[in-house]
Amino acid sequence: MGISERKEREKQEMKSLILETATQMFLEHGFEKTSLRNIAEKIEYSPATIYLYYKDKNQLFYDVHEKGFELLAEKMTPLMQIENPLERLYKMGEIYLDFAFHNPEYYDLMFIMTAPMEALHDDNWDCGFANYEMLRQTIAECMEKGLIKKADLEVTTVSVFSFVHGLVSLAIRQRFKMYPEETLPELFRQSIDNILNLMKA
Amino acid sequence: MGISERKEREKQEMKSLILETATQMFLEHGFEKTSLRNIAEKIEYSPATIYLYYKDKNQLFYDVHEKGFELLAEKMTPLMQIENPLERLYKMGEIYLDFAFHNPEYYDLMFIMTAPMEALHDDNWDCGFANYEMLRQTIAECMEKGLIKKADLEVTTVSVFSFVHGLVSLAIRQRFKMYPEETLPELFRQSIDNILNLMKA
DNA sequence: CTTGCTTACTAAACACCGTTCAGTAAATTT
DNA sequence: AAATTTACTGAACGGTGTTTAGTAAGCAAG
Q: Can you give chain B as a three-state secondary structure string?
């Protein structure tokens, strides 16, 4: 029957209206200033309505943070076409930095804020997986082809990811005040070059 | 005259009563659950009283985060006695990890949360300076003595700090769910060893 | 010793927040 | 046409940071 299908479709549309509005307001004004009441007002529904589609605010922002991961994956996936894995690794670092500094609120939600993680009570956090997997595979290929020094793959992947995240998150959360802000991009680029040069075979 | 001195002293005592209570409650229950109303209730004053000693919640938590830096400096300073700078660098990494995982709330406030930084409208964030300076100096000594590869000092210091912070902050904010929690300490130790080995001359 | 001023403090309100629940009105099924 | 299901909301609950008008005690000067 067509009615229940239409209803299901309408339900999905309503859910994504909430999600889109939440995302837009979050990217525009940040997490703190995006309240369920604000979102509800914008879509001209009562705040209580949101609870018919999302268990709570954390669940809603879990979905927002998922959209961030999709956006990042869209930028990362094409890089897998690059034959030379070391060149690819450099490019990944560059794209990652670009993403972080052009979408700091997304980055914050994806890798720093506690809110989305609180929506996750079991331990399967699939979101970051695709991107992390690309990084791991690229590093593995670099090792296989003797482009970087051989070492434990997991340890190396963790190291590279942590290093770049450290740079980005310290910048986003304003902990690099000892350096003038305009010097940071160049400092970061040098820093990444430095580390990757050390890793080169 | 003694009266105004006593008053000044009492004012300082009141301020530090608030600070101590806030710190204690924060370390016990976390930032979110430590409200000005809770703190006020514990010290048996009205919430408005706190505003006679602190401009706002961010200012209060700026002072709490400062106490965190003092605690870290207390653990770091003795290490400067170690003659061999490379050995000292290893030890600093170890102590840093220890501090982070034994005082995750402090670490969060010091290096991740936005709250304390919002209390800072000029650009002089002195807090981390002492600790950062020790790291920079240790790395400089390592380079001078030819223990690690020579490179730009600032770039290398930023790299090392970002790397370790990356590890810690991803763990604290639950972004290492792809690894079982009990394997993280060992993974981190290997990761640090790995990086430092790459840096060795 | 009393008057006036300063200081320390608070009650109450303001404007928010996330969340819950009883109730309503429309759509759908029987 | 009646009964039921669905989608939604108004209003409240219990919290938050913050401001302000007012009070009562402490102190200084007359």
A: CHHHHHHHHHHHHHHHHHHHHHHHHHHHHCCCCCCHHHHHHHCCCCHHHHCCCCCCHHHHHHHHHHHHHHHHHHHHHHHHHCCCHHHHHHHHHHHHHHHHHHCHHHHHHHHCCCHHHHCCCCCCCCCCHHHHHHHHHHHHHHHHCCCECCCCHHHHHHHHHHHHHHHHHHHHCCCCCCCCHHHHHHHHHHHHHHHHHHHEC
Q: Which two tokens stand for residue B117?
A: 């930084």
My answer on whether B32 and B67 are in the same domain is no
CB-contacted nucleotides of strand C (7 Å):
7-13, 16-22, 28-29
Residue pLDDT, tens place only, B133-169: 999 999 999 999 999 999 999 999 999 999 999 999 9
Token duo for residue B181: 């929690």
Which residues on B lie below 8 Å from A188 (Cβ)?
A: 158
Question: Domain check: are A82 and A157 in the same one?
Answer: yes
* Structural domain harbouring A143: 57-199
Does the pLDDT at position A1 exceed 70? Answer: no
Kindly report the CATH number assigned to the domain that includes residue B8: 1.10.10.60
